Amino acid sequence: MKKILIALGICIALAVMPMTTAAPLSNLRPMNIIHHARPALTNGTFTGVFAMKNESGYNPLGEFSGTYESWEWTGTFVGTWTMYNGSASGTMTGWNWGYFFYGMLNTTGSEESNWFIGLYRVNTTDNTFEAGAIILAEEHYILYMMGSI
Amino acid sequence: MKISANHIRTTRVVVLVFIVLSSLSISGIATEPLQDSLNHSINSDRRQTLYVGGTGPNNYSKIQDAIDNATDGDNIYVYQGMYYEHVLITKNVSLYGESRDQTIIDGEGTGNVIKIQADGGTVTGFTLQHGGIGAYIVYASYVNIIGNTITNNWEGIGLLASAHCLISENTVSHNGFEGINPVQTTFTTISGNLIIDHLQGIYLVQSTSNTIFGNVLSGNMRGIEIQESSDDNHLFHNNLYSSEEDNAYDVCSNSWNDAYPSGGNYWDDYTGGDANHDGIGDTPYNIPGGGGNKDYYPLMSAWDHPPAQPSDPDPQDGASNVPVNLMISVFVSDADQDVMDVSFYDASIQQLIGVDENVPSSTRASISWNGLENNTMYQWYAIANDGSATNQSDTWEFTTGNGTNQPPWSPIITGPTTGNAGQTYNYTFISVDPEEKYVIYFIEWGDSSNSGWIGPFQSGESVNVSHSWTTRGTYTIKAKAKDMQNAESDWGSLSIKMPMGSSERTMLFMHFFDKFFERFPSAFPLLQNLFFLKKSVQ
User: What value of ipTM does the predicted structure carry?
Assistant: First the structure.
């Protein structure tokens, strides 16, 4: 009997718990819907070339491609990159906020990965973009990227 | 007193030694200035101007060929034209373009349009386009990039490990990445540039102790960005407009104002007030980036830049055989895009020749100067006034003479030859000046109206002008051109027919019926019955 009472008590407690948590949430929900309606998702692909600058000028080094998902001012992207000379390749993962983006570069076969932060812009008339990012490696360097979405 | 022979011998020796020493020192003193003078003379003689383009018999066709054959201190004058080159400067030479808009170096989508790897030298009066970097200064000092248009490159102006350079009064626009990008650069001045539509307008990387003032930055994702140990830079009197991300972003430690009352920069997103109306905001403008930088004296209204120094004179400085009646002109620009009044002065007697009013920025101002003495040297200069500030040009000179100036060719007129009255049509006028100078046009439309003198335009440039005729008829459009030395072409002409407009056609139709029924009054009831009958049959 005691066990039955304990089990009954637990059941009642479990049943009441969602009701108590749900009560204030239901009060807030209309406001949440109004102010935090998620912008429509846009997604697509991107492809382009990356370059570094030295005393010769701009030197295109390789190419990259990937996919992105974006909700108005924020979004994510993933992709791969390859050096033209085949010396290295890897992946990239990142996020954007407005025209600012940041993320992580990984090199295949290496445990090394580096953060990057940068700025980009998109020309919506011809769906091209330009971006510049500081790679936060042991020695910082700047990568320049341009391509299309 | 007795003088011994020994003493006499000794005295002779001393005197001789003195004379020898004296003559040595005299010759030494005399030699140095002589040598200096000789060196100066040799250097002056060696300094030369090489010409590229144009019609001179020894002119080079490529800028790089002229550079390769130049020596330190030479000037290279490049006539207007399109040059598809990647110019590399490895000696102290200066490049002067004949006309900023018409002397174009095009990188054809690759490489650096101009790369400078030597101390000294100036590049002015060019359009640099379609390259990796428009102008790239690498490991060089005291290089000047002044008064150029740099557009549609990956990057406008780059500096790497350079110092004491001057980047001034350029229009830098629509380059993919940075407008101006100093890297590891020091003690350089960036001033009076118009910088439009870039990822970063000015991007300082590992660059210290530079002065950045009086620039206009508009439509860049970031107006000015400062990264990677770029400290002790001084930035003031810049106007920053409508940057998508930030007007400025500074992770380092820099000075963003020129103290009170000179003030800081103009920020179009500054929201502070100005209670004492001194033109300086009451609260600092915080510059994002984490460097804790502030503009303590933000300007409440945009800094009014003076006009750029008038340049690119026509006739050229030192020209000879100039006619006694001529048109003189200069290129004028203003970083705020203000229109200007441009006054021309006879420098010999400090007398005003005339004023060209309301001249748009980045165009030419011109004025007639007539009745000059033959075989006489004249000096002149121009002052551009944007309403709040002025800037005076250098003083130039020319010599009049029995020049062989040829008038421009008769304008060729193209455009529709038939049309309807009341509608507007575009016509194109082209005239070529044998001296390849600027021309102005006078157009008569054949309906008693004319354009007045318009221009100046480049020789061979297509000039589009529109016009409409109010009544039908056959008209002859006539146009003549005049060069800057007041030589006029013959008239060019084009005949056109304007049959009639739709309203005119309706009026004519009504007029016909009026006349018809006046002449045949019985026709009206007849026609009325006819139509009635037709209707009843139906």
Answer: 0.74
